[in-house]
Design a protein that fits this description.
The complex is a heterodimer of chains A (571) and B (266). Chain A is α/β, with parallel strands linked by helices. Chain A contains 18 helices and 24 strands. Chain A has a domain at 56-453: Alpha-Beta Barrel (TIM Barrel). Chain A is globular, with a radius of gyration of 22 Å. By secondary structure, chain B is mostly beta strands. Chain B has a domain at 112-265. Chain B is 5% helix and 37% strand. Chain B has helices spanning 23-26, 31-35, 48-51; strands at 2-8, 16-17, 38-41, 44-47, 52-55, 65-70, 76-77, 87-90, 106-109, 125-128, 151-154, 170-173, 186-192, 196-198, 206-211, 215-217, 223-232, 235-244, 252-253, 256-257, 260-265. In chain B, the strands form four sheets. A 13-stranded mixed sheet of chain B has the order 5-1-6-8-9-10-11-12-13-15-21-18-17. In chain B, strands 4-3-2-7 form a four-stranded mixed sheet. The longest helix of chain B has 5 residues, at 31-35. The chains are: A alpha/beta (571), B mainly beta (266). Chain A binds chain B through residues 74-78, 80, 85-86, 335-337, and chain B through 43, 45, 140-144, 249. The structure holds zinc ion (ZN).
């Protein structure tokens, strides 16, 4: 493999505490090495006056699988006029909020992202998820199977059977080649199959007679029993409704008293995702307001949780979630087309297009809340930037979100451009905030932080010798004052160089190599558990529309380049 | 105004996508430069000059440019796409997406057009002397934001799904129309001088349909209101006035629900 030495760049690496010092980064055999360990044949990359960081990590995006594909199928208008023809080894690619798998890989890579997590894998359709992951070039990916409305989980946890829940989770992670335990509107999606929902953590789930709080606490315990690399990853109840911040606080408080148990250096026991959608005050759309401060006051003082933002980007996009009842609520609001699927014993999903218009007050307030969360974060390594792609906006807008976070001037210009500027200012905190996120904090929010939260900190998100050589050079000088905030957006849109596991995949903002994409999954060993195995067999015979043998995602077709993280909970 | 004449000389083996044949794209170019504009035949990018003889230089702007398309262009798509000004005359018949997304100027097709003519039209005028295919003046596949302005005249018949998701503008069909007219439209007007079949105004939110001839089957969601006298295109006549689609949501204006209107000549 080629050797490289990236010379004289301003390095930002929170893992090693490097804050923009001029340093060289050396790459050999796919790994970062000490700069005296490369030979004289190493290719020199001149990074003078440029910013050098580890590859960025996407902790939560909907980029592969059946609901993404439903979006693609029923929104041909999302692809209109966007296709670029095949060029060399770069495939034809297109789409805006629901890009093709190829475009997904290319666009992440061009921005300097080298790892991404698909945030909601319906276990029954894990084969489809993995086929799309396989066809998404360059970036390493993992997928989070959803557990929060799963019949096995609810039945075991009703009787507080943590060991059985853990054994089932381990089996499902292995069967679906999943990465972490995801919860979406715990209990609420199952309740919706009965025409109901769970809007608080104490609303009982019909038939199963369990509450969201019991599901959440039980899965925290199972997660730590197994010692998985990531914590539970939760989309809490009551998403998107005015006044929902109390439900969010109730959810966060469920983590109190739990300590992370794992060998990966992870500290949190709960990751709360797209927090913007869960930080709302008021009790209707007229008095809708930001409760970012209430949420961040709690997050800042509570060390065992991490969050991501879910920034609204003010675009036309496609919402998609396993929160079936929410998507129905949304189509009733905006009258746009709705797709809905029930996934047997496991989950459901809905898809609705959405236009976040700067002329609509609520959308502008949502925009403000997403930014406020990041700007109020005292510890940038526990608050990560996402757009909950494509729910609050396409991931391709990260450079714009970064611009808003790094420049008070850019935020001011956007606030002024809102049609209801005064009302938006009155309902939010954004106008008074002058904090500007530094490049170091940006590296915490997009590299070191998500890597640690995912339990991948020894592998990626940093530039320590021995780690995977995921390295990005941005044409952005930390020394020079930024005359126009658009320079920030331009620099982070198209990296000057991107290396993925030591292969140069992007040069001058263009994809030059398809890399060696891996699928990351977690292989958790537990004690033999005949009861759980018997339960699984029985449910497949009784309820599932497929046989157990046709359920698992196995082999080269689905996962041609697996990377298994081993966990042993059998002792 | 300057005229550029393009004449088919080499028929494509596959269908040709000629989205550059519009006054906006030709403006300011000489004949040899126009011949260099791209076209797609299947997955192969090629030049207009490979298939067409190009004669005459374009005007400085789209408004100063007139294009005449001669020869057999039945296998050519996207003629007049996104044109905003000037003139385009197609002497024969043409394939899909004629005048799609046009926003100004005049396009005249002397023969027939295939499906999706004037998709997403915003302004200008499209005149079809022959027949139109399906989805005339409709939204792009999947989109709920259809034709918002402009005028379409079909001297012959139109296929199914005229004016789907229409928001504004006007379509006049001198002949007959097939099933589905103004499905889910929220504005605009479609006049059918001949006969209509069925499913007129299904999910119609707002907008107007006028039919001079017969309607095979009325939608059950339409309600008779009264008989009215209307003047349409200089013709005064009596029409039965229906409102609908009563099965669809409707906006309110001054406390009153606004329905779509269907007028049938009696
Ligand atoms: Zn999500």
């Amino acid at each position: 493999m080629a050797e490289y030495i990236i010379k004289n760049g301003h390095v930002f690496d929170p893992l090693q505490g490097i804050k923009g010092d001029k340093a060289d980064v050396a790459i050999k055999d796919g790994k970062i090495v000490k700069d005296n360990q490369v030979s004289s044949k190493a290719k020199t990359i001149d990074a003078k006056g440029k910013t050098v960081m580890a590859g960025a990590i996407e902790i939560h995006a909907h980029i592969a699988g059946p609901k993404v594909n439903i979006g693609r199928i029923y929104r041909p208008e999302d692809k209109l006029f966007t296709y670029t023809p095949k060029k060399g080894n770069i495939r034809m690619a297109g789409g805006t909020s629901i890009p093709t798998t190829f475009k997904t890989g290319y666009e992440y890579a061009k921005m300097g992202y080298t790892t991404a997590m698909e945030a909601a894998m319906p276990p029954l359709f894990s084969r489809h998820v993995h086929e799309e992951i396989r066809d998404t070039p360059i970036i390493d990916e993992g997928a989070f199977p959803v557990f929060g409305n799963n019949w096995f989980v609810m039945e075991y946890l009703k009787n507080n059977e943590i060991e059985n829940t853990s054994a089932y989770c381990a089996w499902l992670l292995r069967a679906t080649k999943g990465y972490a335990i995801k919860l979406v509107n715990p209990g609420g999606t199952e309740a919706w199959a009965w025409g109901l929902n769970c809007l608080s953590v104490n609303d009982p789930v019909p038939y199963f007679d369990i509450t969201p709080a019991e599901i959440i606490k039980g899965l925290i315990e199972a997660n730590e029993y197994l010692g998985l690399p990531h914590s539970i990853h939760i989309h809490p109840n009551n998403l998107g409704n005015p006044g929902n911040y109390t439900t969010t606080l109730d959810t966060l408080k469920l983590a109190e008293g739990y300590k992370a148990k794992n060998k990966f250096g992870r500290d949190q026991v709960m990751h709360l995702t797209h927090t913007q959608f869960h930080s709302y005050g008021g009790d209707n759309w007229a008095n809708f307001e930001s409760k970012s401060k209430e949420i961040m006051d709690y997050v800042n003082k509570t060390k065992n949780i991490t969050i991501d933002t879910g920034n609204v980007t003010l675009d036309e996009t496609t919402t998609m979630t396993a929160d079936g009842p929410f998507e129905h609520h949304l189509t009733e609001l905006n009258h746009l087309k709705w797709a809905n699927v029930d996934v047997e014993l496991e989950t459901a999903a809905g898809v609705v297009p959405y236009i976040y218009s700067p002329d609509i007050k609520v959308c502008a307030i949502q925009w403000a809340i997403g930014l406020e969360l990041a700007l109020m974060a005292k510890d940038a390594s526990r608050c990560f930037i996402t757009t909950d792609h494509p729910n609050a906006g396409p991931f391709t807008r990260y450079p714009r979100v970064i611009k808003w976070l790094m420049s008070a001037k850019a935020r001011e210009a956007q606030i002024k451009a809102f049609k209801n500027s005064d009302k938006v200012i009155a309902a939010t905190h954004i106008a008074g905030m002058d904090r500007e996120i530094s490049l170091y904090e940006l590296a915490q929010m997009t590299r070191a932080g998500p890597a640690k939260s995912l339990g991948l900190a020894s592998m990626c998100g940093g530039l320590k010798p021995g780690m995977d050589a995921d390295v990005v050079v941005y044409d952005f000088s930390p020394d020079k004052p930024v005359a126009n905030p658009d320079q920030i957006e331009a620099a982070f849109s198209r990296a000057a160089h991107v290396f993925k596991s030591g292969v140069e995949v992007v040069t001058n903002g263009e994809v030059v190599n398809n890399g060696n994409k891996r699928t990351i999954w977690v292989n958790a060993k537990v004690k033999e558990n005949p009861q759980v195995m018997r339960d699984i067999q029985e449910k497949f015979l009784k309820y599932y529309s497929v046989s157990q043998a046709n359920y698992e995602a196995l082999g080269h077709h689905f996962i041609p380049n697996p990377y298994a993280i081993e966990v042993d909970a059998s002792q | 105004m300057e005229t550029v004449t393009i004449t088919m000389k080499n028929q494509p083996a596959l269908y040709l996508e000629a989205d550059n044949v519009a006054p906006d794209k030709f403006a300011g170019k000489t004949a040899p430069q126009i011949a260099e504009l791209h076209v797609y035949e299947g997955n192969t990018t090629s030049t207009l000059g490979k298939y067409f003889e190009v004669a005459g230089n374009a005007g400085a702007t789209a408004a100063d440019t007139r294009i005449v398309v001669k020869g057999d262009v039945k296998k050519v798509k996207y003629l007049g796409m996104k044109m905003s000004a000037g003139e385009l005359v197609v002497e024969g018949s043409t394939d899909l997406y004629a005048g799609a997304w046009m926003s100004g100027g005049t396009m005249l097709v002397k023969g027939n057009v295939e499906a999706f003519a004037a998709t997403g039209m915003k302004g200008g005028e499209l005149i079809i002397e022959g027949n139109a295919g399906n989805y005339l003046g409709s939204a792009y596949r999947g989109d709920w934001r259809g034709v918002s302005g402009g005028k379409i005249l079909v001297k012959g018949n139109a296929g199914s799904d005229v004016g789907q998701y229409m928001l504004g503008g006007e379509i006049v069909i001198n002949g007959n129309a097939d099933v589905h007219v103004m499905t889910h439209a929220e504005g605009g007007k479609v006049t059918i001088k001949g006969n209509a079949k069925s499913k007129l105004g299904g999910q119609l939110v707002d907008g107007t349909i006028i039919v001079f001839g017969t309607i095979d089957v009325m939608m059950p969601g339409f309600k008779f209101v009264d008989n009215v006298e209307l003047e349409v295109d200089g013709t005064k006549a009596k029409f039965a006035h229906f409102i609908g689609d009563t099965g669809e949501r409707h906006k309110k204006r001054k406390g009153q629900l606004i329905y779509g209107n269907l007028y049938k000549k009696i």
